[in-house]
Design a protein that fits this description.
Elements (H helix, E strand, L loop, with lengths): L20 H4 L3 E8 L7 H4 L9 E5 L9 H7 L2 E4 L13 E7 L2 E6 L20 H10 L16 E4 L4 E6 L18 E6 L19 E9 L25 E7 L42 E3 L9 E3 L1 H23 L5 H25 L4 E7 L1
Parallel strand pairs: 3-5, 11-13
Antiparallel strand pairs: 1-2, 1-4, 2-3, 4-5, 6-7, 7-8, 8-9, 9-10, 12-13
Helix pairs in contact: 5-6
Amino acid sequence: MSTYSYGHRKPTSVSATSPGSAATSRSVLARVVDIVLNSSHKDYQTFGKDKSINGIRYRLLTSTVIQGDEQFVRDQLPFAYQEDTNIKRIPLIGEIVEIRPQTFSDKPFYSFPKNANNSTLANINPDLSNEEYIEIAENEIEGVRKANQLESIKGDVILEGRSGQSLRFSSFKTPRWDYIDPTASGSPITVLRNGQGAEPVGSTVFEDINKDDSSVYLTSNHVLPITPGSRKRKSYLEKPTEVDTFRGKQAVVNADRVVINSREDSTLLSGKKSVGLSAESVNLDGSVYVGIDAPKVYLGEVASDEGQPAVRGEALTAVLNDLVSTLTQASALLKTAAPNPVAITLALQNVAGVFDSHANTLKALIPDTKSKKVFVE
C-alpha cells in the first residue's frame, strides 16, 4: 500500500501546522501518511522527481484535528525527504519517524522508523482517535509473513528485515544456540538468512539451518548441524568428513534449490581434496562434449579394485579384425579341399598352420584392448 486512504469514511483530521517552517525549525515526531515509491506517484513531479523517491507526507503527532476535504487534507500535509540514500529503511504508513531540520538545506528529512512496538514486522502507532489510521495499520501488514525477532548474543551486530530476513555477525557462545560451542567461542560466524522456519510467533528465535527457508553460513571454527539432501559417498576411496561434523572454515549454502549460473564464461568448481556430487541422479549434459580425465577413473562402487579394466574400442577392433581375417583364410582352405580323406587331411593341416601363424599375433594384441586408467564394476 503506497498511498494514503481514508477508507469508507469522510476524513476527520488534518494537520493545522504549515507544511513548511514549523516542521523544519526543530526535530519533531510525525506519523507517515504517504510514501513516494516510484515515478507514477502524484508527488513525484511536485517534489523534485528522482529526489522525491522514498519521500513521505506526514502528520505531526502534535497537530490539531479539524474537518476537511479528503484530497485537500492529504495535499496540505508537509513533505520530508529520506535522510540516508545508502542504507534505507522504508517506513510503513502509520509508523513514527523523526522530522529533522538540516543546516545545509531548507528541506526537512526524516529518520528511520521509531521502535514503537519493538517489532521487526511493523512499528505502526495508529492514532486511536482516528479510525482510518487503525484501518491503515491493518492493511499495511495484511498478507505479510510474520516472523519473530532474532535472539541476540552479547557482542552481536544484527540487521533484520520485516519478514524473517536477517544478517548476523557473531562470535560469542551462548548455551541457547549450539552453533557457537565452547570450542568455537570467539571465532567469527556470519549468517545470512531469508525466512525463518515454522516457529510460534511471540518469542525470540535463533537461525536454524534446516528449517529456515534459505541461508548462507560463513564459519571459521564451527560445526553446523545441517541435514544433507544425500549422504551417498560410495564412489570415494576415502570419504570426506560429513557436512554435519566438519569443523573449520567453510561456506555453506542451504535451500530447497541452489542455482549457480555463468552467463558468458565458465563455472569452475575446484577442491584440493575432492568435489563431491551426491543426489538421486547426477546428470552431465554437454552441447559439444563431456570430458573426464584422471590417472584412474572408476565406474562403480567396487571398480576401485581394478579387476575389470574398461575395453579400448580401437584396440579391440584390431584384434577382432585379425581374428576374422584368420577365420576367413581357414574357411577358404576348407572350401577348396577335394572330397577325399587325403585332401581333407591336407586342408586341415593348412588351416592349423594359419591359426598357428596368427595365434601369437592375436595373443600379443589382447592386453592392449584393456584400458590402463578406466575400470568398471
